[in-house]
Each structure stands twice: as structure tokens, then as C-alpha cells.
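Z., the sequence and structure:
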Amino acid sequence: MDEINLFAKTNFRGQEKTFGIKTHDRRQHMYVIGKTGVGKTALLKNMALQDIEAGRGIGIVDPHGEFVEEVLEKIPSHRINDVVYFNPADAEYPVGFNILQAPDPKYKHLVASDLMGVFTKIWANVWSARMEYILNNCVLALLDTPGATLLGILRILVDKDYRQKVVDNVRDPVVRAFWVNEYASWRDQFRNEAIAPIQNKVGQFLSTYLIRNIVGQSKSTINIPEIMNTNKILLVNVSKGRVGEDNSALLGAMLITKIQLAAMERVRIPEEERKDFYLYVDEFQNFATESFAGILSEARKYRLNLIIAHQYVGQLVTETTTKVRDAVFGNVGTLITFRIGAADAEFLEKEFTPEFVIQDLVNLENYNIYLRLMIDGVTSRPFSATTLPPTAIGKITGQRDKIIKTSRERHANSREEVEAKIAKWSGMVPKEEKRFAKSEEGKRRPPLARHKTICWACGQETDVSFKPDGRRPIYCQKCLEKLRKGQEVPLRFKQITERSVNEPERSELKELGIEFGGDSGSRTSDEDKTKKPGVAVEEKKREPSPAISLKDALKKEPVPFRRKRKEVNLKDLRKTIEEAINKKE
């Protein structure tokens, strides 16, 4: 026997009767339309709470957040562990959702097609054939790469090494040919112009850390097929006010696409064993892509039952197509209308005539409806009813915080962990340096030799890992710490270090018979005699030049820097030439 979900009451033969819709009839989908504030969300909430109480599997996609939050307050205790709460605004515990993680390779083309449909709808004002061509090849290439996410779209366009890594995994010869033969041959200027719109739109979507931390996780933490097959509760709070209008629409549409693909996987399950999953979509025009039309026409056989609501018919029509509108009115079994505008009343009059006309549709009071109800597979004649009060179903349980905490523990990761993985993937974090250097044979190299010398600042003996050359300053550990703190450290023992470095070289040359004389910079022999080996001698400070004024400095003769030319005695030269000529004669 079919279970009945109650949602309204009507006056039948002088008696007020509460009625609802059977499970079998719900598989034909329900469509709710009405102006804002007339009671659409209250109707959906009452139905959803009954499904939750009955232990059924449901999903709610809410672009405002209020619907989901009110349902959270009334989740009964026995269903707390079934809740999967997806809230992109929860920055500290992002849920992982990777649309490119295809469950079955044969559905990869569907993922790409549906994802392109989402992009086409959201970015319709800037969409072009070239943008679609490049973006489609990006998605198809990434679908063949294990662990790839939407973050790879921007990287594959500009990072040559990453692009090569992805192309190596591509199995489709057409996609591979695009990257190897076509994209690689484009001139830089043309390539930059071609990919600029993609970088702009995809970059805006991924630049928000809230979104990046969700779609940038290589492994999804929410298992959509499991949620549908085990009667779980999926609550999606894509509030526009928290994540932005475009981000809300993109995330919501991608989640609905994922749900559609999960439903299609049920083809391997016998039809009588498939469990009904009820998907509530409020303000569904935000997510109504052309693939959504496919759900309406095909989801029934996979037991994916839709309950969709929005405000007016014009939201389903674009400049180029009426496909979604036609799919809605061509497939839904139960049609419910609250108060609507004159244009919609004119369009819907043919659905409710002769019982109700345009004037009736535009003058309905809040929480009053006209509907055509699916009863045992047959659509009824139109009749009027009043929806159940918003507080009629369920009680506030006070379990909201506990539900969110439980869902975080099971279906989310910490922000620090996610951002660290994304940074590592993007190459922003350098690879960890090896603690020990290794030779080609894999053995540890011997430790570097230490050289004993004297600190140029304090004269204390120290050792360094390089051979002193007399030019590079040498400091002990204490003086080095002073330098790092910004303190002044005078080099008072530089000369003795220079002498100790140069002496071995001179002794080696002396053995070869080469000797050096004293230079102007060396000390006198008398001074050297007073030096004791191994004892640091303080260098004499150089007396500063007396200060003079600029006027006095200008009176001084300039210092000549050019070498004087050697004067040639022309008389001697002539005499030498004449003598040479006379000898020849």
C-alpha cells in the first residue's frame, strides 16, 4: 500500500478533508508556482518533514538558506546520523565536492556535457563558441586525470609542465590532438586572447576561498549514490547572501547534475529494489539548465522524484530556448499554483479551464491553491484547497548544533588540511629539503671538512666549513649573532687572518725558487719580529682625513688619474735613422 504525504485540506461535500499524494504518484514529479510570500516554501517544508519522519531519503537545495535552516531545527533524534549538511559558508570545515570525480568512465562524457550546460547558463552573457570549445577540451582532459579538480582548468591553460602531465593521461584521440597539435601551435598572443574569458569567469569562481576549498578537494567527502540508496538526508544551503549569486547557482547546478548521474547509475539495480529519493528544489530557475529537462523526462524510472518551486514562468525561458519550460509542463504529474501574475495566469489558464479562469488565478489569497493532482496515475480535474499551516508538521527538537557537529565529523575536513593540500598541488610550497645529501650510489656523503681560523671581529679562534681566502669575512658564532641583530661589529683582526692565509701559498712558491719582496701593504721586518705566532694583533686604526669646506676643496688641483705619456726624444730618433741609412749606403 502506497504511503500518503499530506500537504493540504479541501472542502468536500460540506466537510473539510485533509489530503495528500501517494508515493507512486509522486514519481511523476510535482510543480509549484506562485508569487513570493504566498506559501510555497511552507508547503515544501511540510512535505519534507513528513518524508524525514517516515525515514525516506530526501535532498533539499535551497538558494536562500531559510528552508534548510527551518528543517534542521525539526530533525527528529532518530535521524540525526542520516543528515549530510552541505553549507559552503562553513569556512572552517569545508565539504569536499569534486564534480570531475566520475564514478564510472562511461559517464565521463555526460559529466562534461552537463558541466558545460551549467557554465552556459550561468555565463550566458559572455559565452562564445571558442570559449566553449577550449573549456570543453579542458574538462574532458581533466576527467582522464586521476585526482583532477576544477582548479586544473586554469592551470592546464598556462602551466606547460602540468599540461603535459594531463595530456599523457588523455585516452580520447580527439582531445589529445587538440592539446598536442592545435593548442601547442597557437602563438602566445592568440592563446592569451582565447583563454582570457575562461580565466576571467572560472578565475572569479575559484578565487573565493570558500568555493576553492570545496571544489579543490580531489576526493569528494559526500557520496551522492550512497545518500540516495541508503535513505539519507542531504541538506544543501547555497545561500546567495553568503557565497554570491553566481557561486550559489554554479554549486547548486553541479550538485543537481551529480544527483542526476547517481540516479542513472541505478540502471544496474533491479527496478523493484530502487529506493525513492525525493529532491526538493526551491527557486529552481537558478539551477534549471537544459540537463535539468532531462531529469524531468528520465528520472522517474530511476526513482528520483522532483518537487520544484519558483515564482513565474518567464524564469524558465531564455533568449534562445524554451526547452526547460516545455519539459516542465510536458512531464510533471501534479501542478499546483498559488497566486500568480496576469501573464502567467494567461499561460496557465488552459491547464485549469473551465473550472478556473484568469481572474481566479490572480486573486488567490495566501496559502490557498488551485491544483491538478495525480491520483493513481491519472491527473484529476482542477480543484481548490488550502495548504496546511507552516507549524502543522514537526516540532523544534533543539538538535541543530549536534546535527551540524555530527555532519562535520563525517563529511568535512578542516580548513588547514584542505588549504595545505591545495597549496602543495599548486606548487606554492617548496619541496621538503633532504636532510642528508646523497651521492649517486645512494650513500651519504662524508661531512664537509672544517677549517680553523680567527674571527675578524674579536680575534677568537673558530672553525668554518669553507677554506679561508683572505677576502671573505669570518665571524665566530657570537659575532655572527650580533650582526644578525643589527649591531656594529668592527673588523679589527682582518690582517692577521690574511697573513695566515697567504703564508702557505708563498712558502710553496719559495720551494720552486720564486720569492716575493715586501709590498707597501706589508708590515716592516721589525714589526714582524715582535709578533708571536698564533697571537692576535689588533690592527691600527687609520686616522681620518681632516675635514675641509667645499670652497677649499675646489681650490685644490684635481687628482690626475690618467697615466702620463712617455715623452719621445725626436732628436735621438732622427740621429738613429740617419745612421741606419748611411750604413746601408
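The chain has three domains: 4-97+220-424, 99-212, 451-511. The longest strand covers residues 4-12.

Let me know what you think.
H.
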